[in-house]
Design goal:
Layout (H helix, E strand, L loop, with lengths): L4 E2 L10 H12 L10 H21 L6 E4 L2 H13 L6 E5 L4 H9 L6 E5 L9 H8 L5 E3 L13 H9 L4 E5 L11 H7 L1 E7 L10 E5 L25 H38 L3 E2 L10 E5 L5 H10 L2 E2 L15 H5 L4 H4 L3 E4 L9 H22 L1
Parallel strand pairs: 1-11, 3-4, 3-5, 5-6, 6-7
Antiparallel strand pairs: 2-8, 7-8, 9-10, 10-12
Helix pairs in contact: 1-8, 2-8, 3-4, 6-7, 8-12
């Protein structure tokens, strides 16, 4: 069977064999509900507890600070809506390049008397320092800034941003879904700097879809968004997705063990890709910023990104145009718009995101395919003109 080369790991990652092996017993013979009192239930509860410990250890957190959710989007919503419900309406500030689950959850608060203020970024996608300092003078109650952007891979110094926010007593959250498994993360140190909560997801670290978590300072008051049963310290009711949670635990453990070596290997592949794309005349986005080691974001002038993605897919390479979560939106990426990229260039944006299954032998064939595909598309454009 034809197997295209997968270059879309920021959207989701393949399931690691060890993760699948850990999940299988809970998909086949072990059927207990973790809330049941019998032996099946006790074994299930023990499995949830072990996974919670594994996720906590990978993030430098205490197990009681891990609240399992169904996905990173739910974790983001739990923090934003849950924290807002426990305080008087005020100002919420989120970066202009956040994931839609943060941007839209924050926008919903405006119907409840909150005021939303976006935090601007510079042309490289970094938080604009002057803009952030001006914002802090307005004393926001809630702030959310992602650790690494899912499209550009740009890394934000959330410890420094949170530390500055402490002076105005803001509650600070970070979506670290893309950073987890690619950058060192220590919730204890981040919490000391002023970060109150982190969102993570299993399927970005070679774990299963359907398991994620909000890592939250236990002193922070949150109103649950799903009630009825009191699961997860009363913050997220519903019978646990046991197989996925077990897989999440193993994936988190593996990600922490392999982080340094994997990051160095992926950075080398990224450099080869970017050098080759630049030689072909591609515009590379955010190259002046510190970025995730696996992410390449580029465009060719006068080439539509969706068209290029489709052509590369037919040639055997799975890539993305912008973010998968907004792939149905024909408008240019909100991330690139926030960076001031011209709409005609932004519409050409294509993202490559490398993972554990990519290797050096795939780079040159991919670049050759890009060169041939872009040349063909330009030829068609010239004929149409």
């Amino acid at each position: 069977m034809f197997q295209p080369v997968y270059l879309d790991h920021n959207a989701t990652t393949p399931l690691a064999p060890a993760v699948l092996a850990a999940m299988l017993p809970w998909l086949e013979n072990l059927c207990g509900n973790p809330s049941s009192r019998h032996e099946y239930g006790r074994r299930a509860r023990q499995a949830v507890d072990e996974a919670r410990q594994q996720v906590a250890a990978a993030l430098g957190a205490h197990p009681t600070e891990v609240i399992f959710t169904s996905g990173g989007s739910e974790a983001n919503n739990l923090f934003i809506k849950g924290a807002a419900a426990c305080r008087q309406a005020g100002l919420i500030a989120v970066s202009a390049v956040e994931h839609p689950s943060v941007l839209e959850a924050a926008a919903q608060l405006t119907t409840r008397g909150w005021r939303l203020c976006p935090i601007g970024v510079d042309e490289a996608g970094r938080i604009a320092a002057a803009d952030y300092q001006r914002l802090l003078q307005e004393k926001p109650a809630l702030i959310s800034v992602m650790a690494a952007n899912n499209e550009t891979g740009v890394i934000h110094d959330i410890a420094a941003l949170a530390s500055a926010a402490r002076a105005v007593h803001a509650t600070f959250h970070s979506d670290v879904v893309q950073a987890f498994g690619k950058l060192p993360l220590d919730f204890r140190a981040l919490n000391a700097a002023g970060v109150h909560a982190l969102s993570v997801a299993a399927h970005k670290i070679n774990g299963p879809k359907g398991a994620a978590a909000l890592i939250v300072d236990k002193r922070l008051e949150l109103q649950p968004q799903i009630t009825g049963g009191g699961h997860e310290r009363g913050l997220r009711s519903g019978t646990e997705n046991l197989p996925a949670i077990v897989g999440f635990g193993v994936a988190a453990e593996l990600a922490a063990q392999n982080l340094s070596a994997q990051a160095a290997r992926l950075r080398g592949l990224r450099q080869r890709l970017e050098s080759g794309l630049a030689a072909l005349g591609a515009h590379l986005f955010a190259v002046d910023a510190e970025r995730l080691p696996n992410t390449v974001y580029f465009a060719f002038a006068n080439i539509d990104g969706e068209t290029l993605v489709g052509q590369l897919d037919r040639a055997g390479y799975a890539v993305a145009s912008g973010a998968a979560c907004s792939s149905a939106n024909p408008e240019p990426s909100h991330v690139l718009r926030a960076m001031g990229v011209a709409p005609e260039l932004a519409r050409g944006a294509v993202r490559l995101s490398l993972g554990a299954d990519n290797e050096a032998a795939q780079i040159d064939p991919f670049l050759n395919t890009v060169q041939a595909t872009v040349g063909r598309l330009r030829g068609l454009t010239a004929i149409a003109a």
